[in-house]
Amino acid sequence: MSRSLSPISAAAVFLLAIVAALAGCLPAAGVFSPDGEIEFRVNIDTKGQPGYEVRHEGVSVVGWSRLGIEFTDGASAVGRYRLADIERNQRDATWEQPWGERRVVRDRHNEMVVTLASKEGVDFRVRVRVFDDGVGFRYEFDGDSQVAIKREWTQINLAGPATAWWQPANGKVRYEHLYEATPLAEMEAAHTPVTLVRDDGLHVAVHEAALVDYAAYTLAPTDGGGFHTELRPWSDGIAVRTARPFTTPWRTLQIAEDASGLINSDLILNLNEANVLGDVSWVEPGKYVGIWWEMHLGLKTWEEGPRHGATTANARRYIDFAADHGFDGVLVEGWNKGWHGPFNYTEAYDDFDLDGVVDYARDRDVYLIAHHETYGDVPSYETQMEAAMDVLADAGIPQVKTGYVADAGALRGVDANGEEAQVWHDSQFHVQHLLRNVRAAAQRRVAVNTHEPVKDTGLRRTYPNWLTREGSRGQEFAIWGEIPNPPEHTVVLVHTRMLGGPMDFTPGMFDLYPVRDGEQKRIQTTLAKQLALYVVLYSPMQMVPDLPENYATHPTAFQFVVDVPTDWEESIALDGAVGDFVVMARRERGGDDWYLGAITDEEARHVSVPLHMLDAGVDYVAEIYRDGDDGHWNDNPYALTIERRDISSDTTLELWLAAGGGTAVRFRPQEGALEE
Known about the structure:
Beta-galactosidase, Chain A, domain 5, TIM Barrel, ten-stranded antiparallel β-sheet, seven-stranded parallel β-sheet
């Protein structure tokens, strides 16, 4: 159904068409969001080139930007085009996530499908969906031939002066860079999501959704001061190899009047296809510990030897720790042979009894999480992947963490002839590989946590066994990076990287002065902030990453780590500003308890939080873990005050966040609250 227009608005559209024609454009095809605030228009310039514009409340968000794709055989979706057909649809429905930041998701959008025809170029369609929280559009091509895409001409000419939060697209460590905040005009080629705060207060995030069998794009500057989508190529420079018919991923713009609106958007998920795996009740969120951090600290090694971490005895120690505190899983890195190369994903080192450890874990109601590190050698992993997944299935291991450690552009893949070649992590080759990996795991009821991945574009909806992924500068950079993660880093991640989906950041470090190879490092947060990160940084699998003995030094603070869930009925960003602070509330799935996390950058601040999300008429006890009055990430990070207060939905909670600090709160209905 098309959006009905009043006689006045119809006349306005007619006048706009006349103005557009006088300005050098032919009449456009437009579609509005259901609330009427966002408009997407496809139009043709005087040269016959198709393009689009996006407006919010009549103000330009994206100025006229080119559309089109160029193929290597000389054919292209550029040239003199006309609007050959326009189809309109509407949708307003809900769907349920088997796990997620919220159980029920509303999909409410207006759709327009514009067919663009040309005697010179290749006919194609642009499918547009406009939501109240933004837009998504993609290309669709018919036919039955093999094609190779040379480049995509899509421009995203962002309008208005703005501050951009971005990370460089061509850096050495993939997506593991600190975000920069610069004027939009000074932004260089960047990975998405890119987040903008315009001078007029509008918030815009640029990303993509449903990246399947295509190359990821980076947002690259054009000579005219705008931006275009630059596809990550294969080793021979070809961007995408595919066959008609095909569709591209969605190019997305999340649009909100404040920072919280970006976080609360479900646009990326809604643009992905529904679950194709069927029953996924075997996919279980949870918390896990693991043989991991001690290798980063240099106390143990991944490879076999006198300091080998993944021994049967050490695994049993972590299993006991997990079982004693109700944690679900134990990650074991370095269990398999080949850490000196080449990797063997089906055989355990001699000092690790795989079946015995799995049985011991099962007896203690804990499961094992395996690890498949590749060091970027994807072809070698591919030859063993099916057999490796069979080993996990036969042993009863329900999850695997995969890794692709290699410098950006140095992932070992293949070229068009099947010969090994270096490729980008976000090339079509790696997109295809990761989907093969996730599908192979799903066939054996194994869930996947991908590290050094392709960026998240919402495919967890289609493949719910794809629980989480890294794709960010995680907490391990406190000891690995030349520059540690600064206090603002996690605040920035919430408003940038996490707009794409869950992130395995590994919150919950209790030793804030770790020592690696005799050198003292520093985690630039307070202890209270480490607790708050469990609520603020969403992942259905959250690690409890520190050494078990470090949690024993702060048992009262550790209680929050034990209590906090990882699967949610609802999640609401309550307040925040990009790069400054964020306040997040989440309700546990299947329960009545709410949790709140608030974190700040290097600035201390007071935040007032109305608790309207709580059930009206219910009395709650708030169990508050906050920075001490003299807390500071650098001077006094362990200052922690734990208190209880009676509150209700009418309460406004006054929070003080120390510099680099945070607050974590559990709200429990009075009847179920613990005694003092």
